[in-house]
Amino acid sequence: MVAMFYEQDANPRALAGVTVAVMGYGSQGRAQALNLRDSGVEVIVGLRAESQSAPRARRDGLRVAAPSEAAAAAQWVQMLTPDESQAEFYEREIAAHVGAGKTLGFSHGFSIHFKRITAPREVDVVMVAPKAPGHLVRRLYEEKKGAPALLAVQQDASGRARERALAYAHAIGATRAGVIETTFKDETETDLFGEQAVLCGGCAALVQAGFETLVENGYPAELAYFECLHELKLIVDLIYEGGLANMRYSISNTAEYGDLTRGPRVIDASVKRRMQSLLDDIRSGAFAREWVEEWTSGAKKFQRLRASAAEHPIEKVGEKLRAMMPFVGKTAKQHEQGPGAGG
What we know:
With 343 residues, the protein is of the alpha/beta class. It has helices spanning 27-38, 54-59, 67-73, 83-94, 110-113, 134-142, 161-171, 184-199, 201-216, 221-230, 232-250, 253-266, 269-284, 286-296, 300-310, 313-322, 332-337, and strands at residues 4-5, 19-23, 42-46, 63-65, 76-79, 103-106, 124-130, 149-155, 179-181. It starts with a strand and ends in a 6-residue tail after the last helix.
């Protein structure tokens, strides 16, 4: 059974006098920096002078400094830059300013687990990983709620790494919802697998395949969009609220029978074998090496795949239909831009 922590388990005073340098001001960077600030923690945002995020961070009332300057001034350096470039960024801007008594924090274990970053032995290395996009981490905090998180300690040089990591989780609102203790290894491997096999890769491929099957058989694209993509939110919400059993309780008997008898014909043993292959690539480090090599060589394949996906007919019909449905709400990009952010 995993260990779980809540508000009463955290000691917020463990961060007393600690300045946190948040590296990056993307989705997670902005949310964590603002939540920390609003919890009374001193925050510096580490951004290069030419960064397009710097004006927004200043508008948000945060102190902005060059990454190396922020790292030198802080006792805690929170690495929230992208996985693919994080190791190079660390070596160039951070490494010289991380020494005894400091904490190196992460919200994903990629760089540490795959040994792209090796911290000095006298430094605490911890992870607090919210299990929600940054805009939701911020919104829930403002609503006096919180997004759940994972916590891990890779290196405990001070003897207080766990206590301080839990205080950090408390400061960003995670202990309001619950914090699960894990390891860098387990967080990294399960996170990558979930993204690839189910949450992003698997789900997107399944939705597109269903849409294509209906359209190729003569059904209107608008109908295919509703049946294979739009209504997915209703089903996911039911699963989120009470598991698969809650979803099956809520749908019709016809839908449930189709689920139980036809679902295994689509997602069969051969799919699980391919899922195992994905997991093998993750655990061996093959995926990490492939992704880093792709990025450092110019990301041409990645950009080509991204452009092709954006041109899929499901995106075109979806854009048209969503414009007719104001109740759908903001996109993730609109949430991140926020009021007065422009764009």
